[in-house]
Write a structure and sequence with these properties.
This protein is of the alpha/beta class and 341 residues long. It has 2 domains: 141 residues, 2-Layer Sandwich (Nucleotidyltransferase, domain 5); 165 residues, ATPase, nucleotide binding domain (Nucleotidyltransferase, domain 5, 2-Layer Sandwich), CATH 3.30.420. The chain contains 12 helices and 10 strands. The strands form 2 sheets. The chain has a 5-stranded mixed beta sheet, with helices on both faces. The chain has a 5-stranded mixed beta sheet with strand order 8-7-6-9-10, sandwiched between helices. The chain is globular and about 65 Å long. The chain binds 5'-O-[(R)-(carboxyoxy)(hydroxy)phosphoryl]adenosine and zinc ion. Zinc ion binds next to helix 4.
Length: 341
């Protein structure tokens, strides 16, 4: 049994995972209500919330799974990338429990967790038939937009990443401009319902064939300029069209880069994970593309797409099997490190 701990940003999450990658318990405390008044995640507030919530959640996860410390064979924890104060809370807790109970410590890169999430199992989810390594993985959230060739556990080839903002960040900032609140991605998704995706043309950066990197900061500036050029009454009246067109621009870029990478690598197993994979249009367009290309697409349920400790526990399970145990000198890092891929 692996105990997984995730505190890299603004979700405190704990999981007990068995050796078959089956989730025995997954519990979490979100922090949206604490950050909403500030319109974004406040790092200091996030760390304080983790400090308060983590130990009770660990007790709860173990009780729900019906396990004792003697049954835990590894403690997996996100050590990077993320908010340094948030990471520190999870990491210090994991290190302490590892020392006290003499259980191996397994430091995990958060993005690696997202990439492996599609392989988790529980009573209502298992990966689609035939989905296995190697596969194409798009991890797209508020903090990352990364496209990988996932060869095997611990073997990842980075094909492209955002050069500036993450896709979720672009959604959040656009929502803020429109006064749709925090977190913004889901609000834009909802507001886009019934809107015309062709009503406004937003730029699609780095769209040259073969370039698998992403850039969303130009899109954000274009949206701001467009809104500033319209009387507020007009953009309020056309909110659905604006959201649909903006969402369309992001989704088409994500899906087109996946298509190009899949062709280039001749790979027919794909996964899309991270908070933005909750987006209804992205899910629909990825499914359409997979059908056209005859690919197997793993779209994990939202509980494994947004930040969660189950994906961290699974990455830890693979590390334990490979003998990749971390030392007590493991430090948090705001960014990924050379050698992670
Ligand atoms: O993976 P996640 O929970 O945390 C990070 O690691 O960032 O992702 C959160 C991000 C936020 O930017 C949020 O606005 C976005 O995912 N998001 C969405 C949707 N639901 C969440 N973006 C677009 N459409 C959605 N339905
Ligand atoms: Zn994440």
């Amino acid at each position: 049994m692996i105990l997984g701990i995730e505190t890299s940003c603004d979700d405190t999450s704990v999981c007990v995972l068995d050796s078959h990658g089956v989730v025995r318990s997954l519990v979490a405390a979100g922090q949206d209500d604490y950050h909403r008044p500030f319109g974004g995640v406040v790092p200091e507030v996030a760390s304080r919330r983790h400090t308060e919530d983590l130990l009770p959640l660990i007790d709860l996860a173990m009780t729900k799974a019906g396990v004792t410390w003697g049954q835990i064979t590894g403690i997996a924890v996100t050590s990077r990338p993320g908010l340094i104060g948030s990471l520190l809370v999870g990491l210090v807790t994991a290190k302490t429990l590892s020392l006290v109970h003499a259980i191996p410590l397994l430091g995990v890169n958060h993005i690696e967790g997202h990439l492996l999430a599609a392989l988790l199992r529980d009573e209502s989810y298992s990966p689609p038939e035939g989905f296995a390594f190697p596969y194409l993985g798009l991890a797209v959230s508020g903090g990352h937009t990364h496209l990988f060739h996932v060869l095997a556990p611990g073997k990842y080839v980075l094909l492209g990443q955002t050069l500036d903002d993450a896709a979720g960040e672009a959604f959040d900032k656009f929502a803020k401009m429109l006064g749709l609140g925090f977190p913004g991605g889901v609000a834009v998704d909802r507001a886009a319902l019934g809107g015309d995706v062709m009503a406004f043309v937003f730029p699609r950066a780095l769209s040259q064939q073969g370039n698998l990197n992403f850039s969303f900061s130009g899109l954000k500036s274009a949206a701001l300029r467009l809104l500033q050029s319209m009387p507020p009454a007009e953009w309020q009246a056309r909110r659905a069209d604006l959201c649909a067109s903006f969402q369309h621009a992001i989704v088409e870029v994500l899906v087109e880069k996946m298509r190009q990478a899949a062709h280039h690598l001749e790979i027919k197993k794909w996964t899309v994970t991270g908070g933005v994979s909750a987006n209804s249009r992205l899910r629909a367009r990825a499914q359409e593309l997979a059908q056209v290309e005859g690919a197997i697409l793993a779209l994990p349920p939202l509980r494994y797409c947004t930040d969660n400790a189950a994906m961290i526990a699974l990455a830890g399970l693979y590390k334990l099997r490979a003998g990749l145990v971390s030392g007590q000198d493991l430090s948090p890092s705001a960014s990924s490190l050379p050698g992670d891929w």
